[in-house]
Amino acid sequence: MAKILLVEDHEEIWDFLSRRLKRRGYDVILAHDGEAGVQQARAGRPDVILLDMNLPVLDGWSAARALKSGTDTQRIPIIALTAHAMSGDRDKAIQAGCDDYHPKPVDFSKLLSQISAALGEAAPAA
């Protein structure tokens, strides 16, 4: 079972996503700020990280840079989750170290496809 670290500070979003991902068979670890997300990634070694970019304590861009600079976490795929959907926001997330980008509101079936791609799997049936 793949392990996903969900770094999200809005309760409605982490509750919704964690429940739906668990129903799909994923093991979900939660962190509610960027610093806790970096610590959880180092301790829990998830297979994929879903990273909100607007986080307290340490923002998502800084967390992504910290994770990609660590030898123990640099190969973990990061999918940016963000309400920033303006021109250039995707590039900003990729430049910070994210491997993929998913604008909010979350399109769950598209997110599942992105997770599967990050894991190197065939896309799941919706």
Automatic annotation (TrEMBL):
The lineage of its organism: Bacteria, Pseudomonadati, Pseudomonadota, Alphaproteobacteria, Hyphomicrobiales. Pfam families: Response_reg. It comes from the Bacteria. GO terms for biological process: phosphorelay signal transduction system. This is Response regulator. The keyword Phosphoprotein applies. It comes from Methylobacterium soli. Keywords: Phosphoprotein, Two-component regulatory system. The keyword Nucleus does not apply. The modification 4-aspartylphosphate is found at residue 52. SMART domains: REC.
